[in-house]
Specification:
This protein is of the alpha/beta class. The chain is 40% helix and 14% strand. The chain has 14 helices and eleven strands. It has a seven-stranded mixed β-sheet, sandwiched between helices. A four-stranded parallel β-sheet has the order 6-5-4-7, with helices on both faces. The protein is globular. The two termini are 27 Å apart.
Length: 380
């Protein structure tokens, strides 16, 4: 196991990689968007333009994809969970398996587990959610409020995933619905990634409505195991007739597994520490995400808790509810464009004063409660 190298908040880890914009892949299935469109309570989440950030960052326009309310939950995760569970139940029905309630088992840093539990409750199924150390008690309570069985694990996220997989394998009526993949477990995580494609399709439509049909010049995405980033790479690298934007991944310094993997050129696990970016506190990239991240990401950066907290405060002042994970995208872009070496990175990413940037704010403040006073001081 490879551990994170210690770094100072003043010298954040950052990597820019040439050539990623020329890589191409196959697109996600079109039927995902149609599926989400007919779900009760579904509507596209806002894409909010923030001119003040554009001026600060020296670009033409900055938009924030605000996932603080998606299908009744305060994060984007319901997109993947709903599509994956739909596919699981449809497959079981087609195979003639017993139609009694299924127990959907998963591990989570918060948002994914609540999305699986909500989907299970709405469909008359059961949920069993494993939660690692470091998840805020209110986030754990929100999962339990969806009528899920919750098991709190005395260990990190990777340990919770292991225990959830063992629990699912031990019960014939149970199905593991995990948003990370490993050898031998790829299909359901792949469905979850497909579910996230709706978010990217909405961005295209909303930018067009806002007078920018050419699409973004850069998209910044918070990263845990890399499943959302895989969906973003898939969307923007599967459009041969359209301009390919630069894609930036952002992780906590305490859990920068994708950055470490990109630096070494192969997937590695890192020892994770404590971070307020609980939903990103993951030590191992998803096996199915890794090839997409390796070939399709233009840049990767790790940020401190204070970086994300300041970004969350600034977004709140501009009318966008964003938790520490969601605000990481702004924090990361600030490091890339305004930190030491920022001008060189700006040039390498093809950005100038006319560029259009999209920041994915993957959760609202309700998704990941933080201690009062943690923001400006960095205290826990």
């Amino acid at each position: 196991m490879t551990e994170n190298a210690p770094s100072s908040p003043r010298t954040p880890q950052c990597l820019v990689r040439p050539g990623a914009r020329t890589w191409r892949c196959t697109p996600p299935p079109a039927e995902v968007r149609d599926f989400h469109a007919v779900l009760p309570g579904h509507s596209p989440t806002p894409l909010t333009e923030l001119p003040r950030l554009a001026a600060e960052l020296g670009v033409g326009r900055v938009f924030v994809k605000d996932e603080s309310s998606r299908l009744g939950l305060p994060a984007f995760k319901a997109l993947g969970a709903s599509w994956a569970v739909h596919r699981v139940l449809a497959e079981r029905a087609a195979s003639g398996e017993e139609r009694g309630p299924v127990t959907l088992v998963t591990a989570t840093d918060g948002n994914h587990g609540r999305a699986v539990a909500r989907t299970a409750r709405l469909l008359g199924q059961r949920a069993h959610v494993f939660v690692p150390q470091g998840v805020h008690p209110r986030a754990v309570a929100a999962i339990a409020a969806e009528r899920a069985t919750v098991t709190e694990v005395a260990g990190a996220y990777d340990e919770a995933v292991r225990l959830a997989a063992e629990a699912a394998a031990a019960r014939p009526e149970a199905v593991l619905v995990q948003d990370t993949a490993w050898a031998g477990y790829e299909r359901i995580p792949g469905w979850i990634v497909e579910g996230y494609s709706t978010l990217c399709a909405e961005i295209d439509e909303q930018l067009t409505e806002g007078g920018h049909a050419a699409g973004p010049d850069l998209v910044a995405v918070p990263v845990g195991v890399g499943s959302l980033a895989q969906a973003v790479v898939t969307h923007y690298r599967s459009r041969p007739s359209r301009r390919a934007p630069a894609l930036l991944s952002v992780e906590p310094e305490a859990a920068a597994c994708v950055l470490a993997s990109l630096g070494l050129g192969e997937p590695v696990s890192v020892s994770t520490g404590e971070t307020t970016m609980a939903g990103l506190n993951c030590g191992t990239p998803s096996s199915i995400a890794w090839p997409f991240l390796r070939d399709g990401l233009d840049a990767a950066v790790a940020v401190t808790d204070l970086d994300s907290a300041v970004a969350a405060d600034d977004l709140a002042a501009l009318g966008v509810s964003s938790g520490p994970c969601g605000a990481a995208s702004l924090a990361g872009l600030r490091v890339v464009l305004t930190g030491e070496g920022g001008e060189e990175r700006r040039t390498a990413l093809g950005l100038d004063a006319s560029s259009v940037v999209v920041l994915l704010s993957t959760e609202g403040t309700a998704a990941n409660p933080t201690a009062a006073g943690a923001h400006r001081t960095g205290g826990e």
